[in-house]
Amino acid sequence: MRYIVFDVETPNRFNDRMSAIGITVIENGSIADSFFSLVDPETHFDYFNTKLTGISAQTVAGAPNFAGLWARIEPVMNSGILVAHNAVFDMSVLKKCLNAYGIVWKGTARYLCTVQAGKKLLPGISHNLNVMCDHYGIALDHHQADSDSHACAEILIRYMESGTDVNSFIRTYHLV
Fold first, then answer.
1. Domain range holding 39?
2. What span, in angstroms and rounded, lies between the C-alpha atoms of 70 and 75?
3. 40: left (phi over 0), alpha (psi -120 to 50) or beta
4. Are 120 and 41 in contact (CB under 8 A)?
5. What is the CA radius of gyration of the chain?
6. Considering the entire predicted model, what is its pTM?
7. pLDDT band for position 86 (50/70/90)?
């Protein structure tokens, strides 16, 4: 199986645009590739989001907008099961960006959430990304899309290495 682990950062409280995306590809149980890009959200930044991520309007100056970036990342995003930590959030931002730019991708996407899987596999502990990284000894520069996607990929690999059939956690997200 091929897993496309991704994480997005958003510029404001509306969570309908991206300011950054990190993608980490897992093939045959190990990390095979990674990608990161800032994204010009073509909207305003809230102070809270800038403080959390370090990304501002100045940071994304010259970065591609989502439509420009999508042409580059769509082949990767279409090449496996999407994975994210708290996947409903990242999937909803992806859906809102596709819709905002009038991009028709596909009606549904298969995805896996490492938070939901973790709640079944490791009950009784917090499943916040930083807590899970501490639990597994994974380096994390939290709220940086590349680091967050890499950390999520490492968590998924730990689940696989424990003998878990992670495919039992695959769900379908409606993009239309």
1. 2-170
2. 9
3. beta
4. no
5. 15
6. 0.98
7. very high
